[in-house]
Amino acid sequence: MERLTIATQPIEGQKPGTSGLRKKTRVFMEHHYVENFVQSIWNGIGGVEGKTLVLGGDGRYFSQPASQVILRMAAASGAAKVIVGQNAILSTPAASNLIRKRGTDGGIILSASHNPGGIDEDFGIKFNTPNGGPAPEEITERIFAATKTLTEYHILEAQDVDLTTIGTTTLGDMEVEVVDPVADYAELMESLFDFDAIRKMFNGGFRMVFDAMHAVTGPYATEILENRLGAAKGSVLNATPLPDFGGGHPDPNPVWAKDLMRIMHSPDAPEFGAASDGDGDRNMITGPSMFVAPSDSVAILAANATAAPAYADGLKGVARSMPTSRALDEVAKARGLDCYETPTGWKFFGNLLDEGRITICGEESAGTGSDHVREKDGLWAVLLWLNILAQSGKGVVALVNDHWREFGRNFYSRHDFEAIETEKAEALMADLRGRLGDLPGTEVAGRTVETADEFDYTDPVDGSVSKAQGLRITLSGGGRIVLRLSGTGTAGATLRVYLEDRSEDPATFGQDLQKALAAVQEAAHVLARIEHHTGRKEPDVRA
Ligand code: VG1
Ligand code: CO
């Protein structure tokens, strides 16, 4: 097998965003595109000679050829071994677990998460560090710098490796171990939760549906929920992973998880409904006719986590991304826990988890997780919910209502304005940024602006600073507005407007969510001049 050194040139725009490099699949299919980025990862992390890596992804279109290129490039650069999920499949949390469990030097995850898959849709490549988490900014910046000076890459000239069969083979001098993608992950879940209690609940007639959305969690959910926990056969919907996710968006929200929502709103709805995203790190939780906001979900999980054996001794602390509602802060206050506020993206939780400062953390975008891995974890959240339901004997609706009665309710919604011209989105942010200093004391939509600033984050563990992580405005009466531009999009800019309001009056808890947020929404539109800058009155998505 010949080791080839191929001359290349830097390709513009290979900058990792909130969660790795994401582009249209056709962009990844361009000449040298994958090769350039992968070589830049190797260069950015000081080479892969003698190292062991994990490789896998959500199985979307283009995963197979990309995996083969990565294997040939790892071998050409002297890697000792790559551990690959069978058929190049590994959910993001399962990859994180394997990286940690096998003590490897990191791994590569092929996914564009909840974005659709296919030749005309999205693809992504992300590097995770030896702790199992997404590379922190310091490393993604080194990778990006490497993309800008690249002159050559190394690749082995070889046949494709058979990734369909579990077992060990070689590629040149490199070992390739193809593993069952589900086994280690299922074992980890079994070590965290009270499977006996959950099994008993299913035996007693408890019903659930889990919508895998034709994405990566199908085999994981079938094995864990149906085979190990005894949920009725057929509880997992859309369980076969497809390269195009059956043409849908594998985005677990009430709009895209249509099958699940129909079932959960039917008269015969089961007690519990859930879904996960393309790569298995997000979760959606529902009860009969009730969608649980992710910001509430992480607060409820933190408040009740001691139901599960892994968390029975209590939590070390909690954390949420800045735009996530402050429902979690209320739990932390009541329980005397430290509560950290980090920028958007799981990589910012890594140091807090590694240092043992926090046990549970979450994001408003349907990501929840704990110190068991270094990624958010969709099925983990589903299992913790099940464990809590089994232990408390309560239903989802009762649990949520009881939570609000104890801690108050933080009404919360994210409004996305998609595919805005980048210059317009940046102009809106620059305009508001320039006026922040004048806002405190201003009256708007019947509220007074209390504070207005731009979020800069200093990591309490390593002191690294991440600037410009979102504009935030607090209003009298517990209101809050956050604005930031998405770092995962593949076309134009997405403006995310996060709206929050607080109530401690139980008479208001049942209100329509968008109505409850009307004043805060109006304030956001006035203060940020959204229509003036974008021409848009209404968001494309209300999450
Ligand atoms: C979005 C979410 C963020 C999440 C990220 C990756 O980022 O807002 O909370 O961590 O996606 O999620 P952005 O920059 O577009 O707002 V996933 O499930 O892609 O790995
Ligand atoms: Co995801």
Task: Give a written overview of the molecule.
Its cofactor is Mg(2+). It is a single chain. With 543 residues, this protein is of the alpha/beta class. The protein has three domains: 2-180, Alpha-D-Glucose-1,6-Bisphosphate, Chain A, domain 3 (3-Layer(aba) Sandwich), CATH 3.40.120.10; 185-407, 3-Layer(aba) Sandwich (Alpha-D-Glucose-1,6-Bisphosphate, Chain A, domain 3); 409-542, TATA-Binding Protein. Strands 2-6-5-3-4-9-8 form a seven-stranded mixed sheet, sandwiched between helices. The protein has a seven-stranded antiparallel sheet with strand order 20-21-24-25-26-19-27. Strand 24 and strand 25 (479-485) form a beta hairpin. Helix 10 (294-304) runs parallel beside helix 11. The protein is globular, with a radius of gyration of 23 Å.
Helix-strand layout with pairing:
Elements: E1 2-7, E2 21-24, H1 25-28, H2 33-44, E3 52-57, H3 63-76, E4 81-89, H4 92-101, E5 107-110, E6 122-128, H5 137-149, E7 152-157, E8 167-171, E9 174-179, H6 183-192, H7 195-203, E10 208-211, H8 217-228, E11 236-237, H9 258-264, E12 272-276, E13 283-287, E14 290-292, H10 294-304, E15 318-321, H11 327-335, E16 339-342, H12 350-354, E17 360-363, E18 367-370, H13 378-392, H14 396-407, E19 409-420, H15 422-435, E20 443-444, E21 447-454, E22 457-458, E23 465-466, E24 471-475, E25 479-485, E26 493-503, H16 513-516, H17 518-528, H18 530-534, E27 541-542
Parallel strand pairs: 3-4, 3-5, 4-9, 10-11, 10-12, 15-16, 15-17
Antiparallel strand pairs: 1-7, 2-6, 5-6, 8-9, 12-13, 13-14, 17-18, 19-26, 19-27, 20-21, 21-24, 22-23, 24-25, 25-26
Helix pairs in contact: 2-3, 2-5, 7-13, 10-11
Bound molecules: alpha-D-glucose-1-phosphate-6-vanadate and cobalt (II) ion (CO).
Cobalt (II) ion (CO) is lined by residues 113-114, 277-279, 281-282.
